UniProtKB/TrEMBL annotation, chains A, B:
Name the record gives this protein: Proline--tRNA ligase
Keyword Ligase: yes
Gene3D superfamilies: Anticodon-binding domain, Bira Bifunctional Protein, Domain 2, YbaK/aminoacyl-tRNA synthetase-associated domain
EC number annotated for this UniProt entry: 6.1.1.15
Name of the gene encoding the protein in the UniProt record: proS
InterPro entries assigned: aa-tRNA-synt_IIb, aa-tRNA-synth_II, aa-tRNA-synth_II/BPL/LPL, Anticodon-bd, Anticodon-bd_dom_sf, Pro-tRNA-ligase_IIa, Pro-tRNA-synth_IIa_bac-type, Pro-tRNA-Synthase_IIa_type1
Catalytic activity annotation: tRNA(Pro) + L-proline + ATP = L-prolyl-tRNA(Pro) + AMP + diphosphate
Species this protein is from: Candidatus Kinetoplastidibacterium blastocrithidiae TCC012E
Entry keywords, A to Z: Aminoacyl-tRNA synthetase, ATP-binding, Cytoplasm, Ligase, Nucleotide-binding, Protein biosynthesis
Assembly and interaction partners: Homodimer.
Keyword Electron transport: no
Length: 574, 574
């Protein structure tokens, strides 16, 4: 490729709305252009990266025995009614009517369509295991699209779906996909971690997320340095920090705590440690079955919504309003507690709270707290005890008791064991060896292809721009001649080297635009091609050229006769 | 590829709704599966064809100097308001609101988005010529989707857009695309013809369609065997069949023509040739500017709507209702004519009609016609004379006077010179050499990728199934062993040959499913792989295998040592 025949258009400034490094750099390097909120054009340089990622995914998926097909973007709502997802999915699911007033959706994933296909195509146990995948555009009407390709509305995903005869076999397919995903992210050159994850609205009961490690990631993951435990904090089990409840030592005393509506303020006011306080959170179940819950966590802990939603009756909880709280507690929030409350309220304590003694909690009287409170003696035991808090720094691994490590991550892959959730609803059955009809076991597996681009940049950049892993760089090498137009020897040498590199099947671009060296180097540093070959008249005199490694900024002069051999060696070591 | 690791699922019967050969065969061969009207899944075998077509298009487009990017499927309606197409486009344009009640469309093409991109990226004449293209999913809400992939709602198109400094340069880009398209269709192996075409709602004033020749095509094209004239009948100029008007020989006579409301019936009733009769067609302009037009064509000719729409004032015509006709003519349709009519009616005559003499036309009295009618003598000269009819068999080429040939075609490509229609509306300007701001000249160029699959099958099939051109066949060769499971030598030889062919970079599948020979051969004939290698125990004894060419059904026995060499030779000659 000659740069004059290509479209390279970099910007000095990123748009003000770009919050993350990758969004800024992708825009400045001319990889993407915004058309509307969360909707982008992949510009020529960016599309090359996208295609390289797609090629790696395709190769690894095919190697795993998965079979590629292509399901439509526009899908009839009918199928989504059958699976129930038309109701479960919120406003992120884009719905519309066609000219005949029939309901359609723009797919965010394709469980329903693949099930409909499998229903028609799978008849015998002999056809399984079967894993289909496609690489297709998705749409999710995000309420707040942001971070460029990281949380866009239109994006490209590889989604795969497995069909098996038994749960046991389905977990083998799950394992196959787990390994294929690890292979894909390794080949791309990402630093990533697979963690146990919540299944969310997709359903099923076993799930792993693959996270690219990055400071700017929206997720927090925890892991044990010394075992293979790793989890999204959403799911990570929080330990009970008090193994056995101590006997009461203090009497329950009503204390003035003027203007202290948080545990932190109460602890400071009363000069007690914050971990002797209890936080009271009031929830309501939906209107058709209105019921109040009081959830208790230690003052320094935070509530984990996902864990709460898994408690029976609380799957659709919401926070109680100030009016509702006043109705039940006759007190405004900030001074609530579990002592002497309305019997209709269900009290759920976090496992640590359940073992606390001599604790501090709100007195349900404005500007008042109780100290020295003890279960059984001062109030009834909680109605239920659950793990309802997020893990915190200092918590231990539930498997090994080692202290957990925390990291931020960008979710780039997610795999689910689905069981029969979709195959039952859409009747994907087969005849087993004995000729009896059974329901297939399914799994689903997604990779956010466009998001990988952003994640790779978050992991690989410096003050000058992007530093592409060579596997997905728009070009592997750029040739930068100084004086291309006016200096015949520079031009001729550049073209000769370009042709030689091309013959070696290396993806190379020759910058024949004759830009000023400062501008040219700044541009290629920004775009992030891993290797630059710099050709100057002075070096040619010594039959030499200079190679610059983008990542280390290290420059080496090399004799032209050894250029190809050296280039290949350096590339292989990158 | 081993067939047991792949998904092959053929059907004995095509769905009853499949009207065309390609739709039937694609469904039976398991290439596509319908999800909703005009919405299909590309099954694994079908997707291989799609990918091969995409690869050829990509190579040829890149070779032409075009640059690939990827514009989004979902586009803000705002841009379509600027171009005016939001109004021009009918209900085929799918419109919807997002969760914030903002208007969006699902792109049928991308003139607006590429203009918006060019507006930001193009600043100087030095950046042009510039041709961008993308391969992207489109949606057109067809009122009657049919013929499988031929007229589907969701489909894949390659669309390209050129930007140039002058009209002259833009026509060079047009030529470049014309040649690239010819190259693409030739490589795919299609019989096709490029014809002059109407520009329709896209706009501009120069356009060619590329048609795959097929009996089942929806379009009719005409061409001159002896010159390079070729045109869609929509656009083809119809000659004036009477060079000079003869002097009147007959008197105008009112004749009873009971129950003869068509020219054919009148001619039979009066025992005159049909080409002495005139057909009267009554049109109205839209309500805001209601005006009646009487269009006259010869009795044996048909009206060409597209030509009529190009007449000033008639761009939005509709047929007059029976009530309107009675209001103006005081007569019901079937007996209308231009003699003695309301002065407010504009009379437009086809060029042939304008030179007719002693003709027959309706008398504006039920069951009555005039004979021996002559212009000037019996009625005023027509208000205007235009070419308003379709070309018919026997018509001559406007360039050479040779008799035109007719063919049916499937539109697979369409190129347009747009001028400044979009660049003006969306302000795509640049600074010219003198530093002055100019508007860019644009062209747009489309290839219906999914439609090519259907067209290729319409051209290449027999009673047993599809016969793929090797360039786009899902596999180039299938190895068909007889007795794969039980006969060790058959199995070992098959695997050995499979490996050898694969090493030669030929796309090969080994049918290791151990199906009965009759079923296996019928299936591969249906799927249409161009070359079958048949391996039997008997032939192995003589160190031979059999090659069958799908197209000719010709079988040849070949010594194993010469297999690869012979296979490559046969493939190259296919």
């Amino acid at each position: 490729m000659h740069a004059t025949k290509y479209h390279i258009f970099t910007l000095k400034e990123a748009p003000s709305e770009a919050e993350t490094t990758s969004h800024k750099l992708m825009t400045r390097a001319g990889m993407i252009r915004k058309i509307s909120g969360g909707i982008y054009t992949h510009m020529p340089l960016g599309l090359r990266v996208l295609h390289k990622i797609e090629a790696i995914i395709r190769e690894e998926m095919n190697r795993s025995g998965s079979i590629e097909l292509l399901m439509p973007i526009i899908q009839p709502a009918e199928l989504w009614q059958k699976s129930g997802r038309i109701k479960e999915y919120g406003p992120e699911l884009l719905r519309f009517k066609d000219r005949n007033e029939r309901d359609f959706i723009i797919q965010p994933t394709s469980e329903e369509v693949i099930s409909e296909i499998a229903r028609n195509e799978i008849h015998s146990y002999k056809q399984m295991p079967l894993i289909f995948y496609h690489i297709q555009t998705k749409f999710r009407d995000e309420i707040r699209p942001r971070f460029g390709l990281m949380r866009s509305r239109e994006f490209i995903m590889k989604d795969a779906y497995s069909f098996d005869t038994t749960e046991e076999n389905s977990l083998i397919s799950y394992e196959t996909m787990f390994n294929a995903y690890s292979g894909i992210f390794n080949r791309i050159g990402l630093k990533f971690r697979a963690v146990a994850a919540d299944t969310g609205s997709i359903g099923g009961n076993r799930s792993h997320e693959f996270h690219a490690i990055a400071e700017t990631g929206e997720d927090t993951i925890v892991y044990d340095r010394y075992s293979d435990y790793a989890s999204n904090t959403e799911l990570a089990e929080a330990p009970c920090l008090i193994l056995e409840r101590n006997k009461p030592k203090q009497n329950m005393v009503l204390a003035h705590t003027t203007d202290t509506n948080t545990c932190k303020k109460v602890a400071e006011y009363l000069k007690v440690p914050i971990h002797s306080t209890i936080k009271s959170i009031v929830l309501m179940t939906p209107s058709e079955n209105r019921k109040m819950y009081l959830l208790l966590i230690r003052g320094d802990h935070t509530l984990n919504d996902i864990k709460v939603k898994k408690i029976e009756g609380l799957d659709k909880f919401r926070l109680a309003t100030e009016e509702e709280i006043f109705e039940y507690f006759n007190c405004k929030p900030g001074f609530l507690g579990p002592v002497n409350i309305n019997k209709s309220i269900t009290v759920i304590a976090d496992r640590t709270v359940a073992n606390m003694s001599d604790f501090v909690c709100g007195a349900n009287i404005e500007n008042m707290h109780y100290t020295g409170v003890n279960w059984s003696r001062d109030l009834a035991e909680p109605d239920a005890i659950y793990d309802i808090r997020n893990v915190e720094i200092g918590d231990t691994c539930p498997n090994s008791n080692n202290i957990l490590s925390f990291q931020r991550g960008i979710e780039i892959g997610h795999i689910f064991f689905l069981g029969t959730k979709y195959s039952k609803a859409l009747n994907v059955s087969f005849l087993n060896k004995e000729g009896k009809s059974n329901i297939t076991q399914m799994g689903c597996y997604g990779i956010g292809i466009t998001r990988i681009i952003g994640a790779a940049i978050e992991q690989n950049n410096d003050e000058n721009g992007i530093i592409w892993p060579k596997s997905i760089s728009p070009f592997e090498i750029v040739i930068c001649p100084i004086g291309y137009k006016n200096k015949t020897r520079v031009r001729e040498t550049s073209i000769k080297i370009y042709e030689l590199i091309k013959e070696s099947k290396i993806d190379v671009i020759l910058d024949d635009r004759d830009k000023r060296p400062g501008i040219m180097f700044a541009e290629w540093d920004l775009i992030g091609i891993p290797l630059q070959i710099i050709i100057t008249e002075d070096n040619i005199k010594n039959e030499e050229v200079e190679i610059k490694i983008r990542k280390t900024n290290q420059k080496t002069r090399i004799h032209i006769t050894k250029l190809i051999e050296t280039t290949i060696r350096i590339l292989n070591n990158l």
